Amino acid sequence: MVATGIGWDVHRFAAGRPLIVGGVTIPSEVGLLGHSDADVLTHAVIDALLGAAGLGDIGEHFPDTDERWRGADSLDLLRSTRELVAVGGVEIAHVDATVLMERPKLLPHKPAMCENLAGALELPLARVNVKATRGEGMGFVGRVEGAAALAIATLTRPDD
Ligand code: MG
């Protein structure tokens, strides 16, 4: 069967934090606040994969109350997610995601984000797509209070 999962994440902007999106550290005066590296894009992709696999959500597997994940590299969490998901004949077919961030511009960084995500998932680049859009001044994204990401993952699973 083909199974899809959605993922959604938000993180608040804060001074003195690195801005890491899709494993890329982007020059910025503010970064995203979180227990891990607060990589909003990678977290959304993780939730999409867990959803498609029927394995709950990121908070169950990598709780933000666990000191093991403090400052965690979210690409490491994504690698662990691939190991959880890609078992028993399950294959990751495709991942697509959108980052909602007012600034800085993500366009120059999208190829590196795709490479990082595809690398962690051991997928060909053609199976991973990252898009970026702004909040047009509206809502928490537009006011630069935080950033959001949504993702969809498609898995092929043996018929059950
Ligand atoms: Mg998160």
Keywords:
alpha+beta, 29% helix, binds magnesium ion
Secondary structure topology:
Layout: E1 2-15, E2 19-21, E3 24-26, E4 30-32, H1 40-53, H2 58-61, H3 74-85, E5 91-100, H4 110-121, E6 128-133, H5 139-142, E7 146-156
Parallel strand pairs: 5-6
Antiparallel strand pairs: 1-4, 1-7, 2-3, 5-7
Helix pairs in contact: 1-3, 3-4
Bound molecules: magnesium ion.
Q: How would the global form be characterised? A: globular
What fraction strand?
25-35%
Helix content: 25-40%
The CATH topology comes to 60s Ribosomal Protein L30, Chain: A
Determine the mean pLDDT: 95
Strand order of the largest sheet: 4-1-7-5-6
Number of helices: 5
Query: What do we call the CATH homologous superfamily?
Result: 2-C-methyl-D-erythritol 2,4-cyclodiphosphate synthase
**Residue windows where pLDDT falls under 50 for at least 5 positions:** none
| Major sheet | 5 strands, mixed
CATH architecture: 2-Layer Sandwich
What structural class is derived from the secondary structure elements?
alpha+beta
The CATH C-level class name? Alpha Beta
Radius of gyration over C-alpha positions, nearest whole angstrom: 15 Å
Number of domains: 1
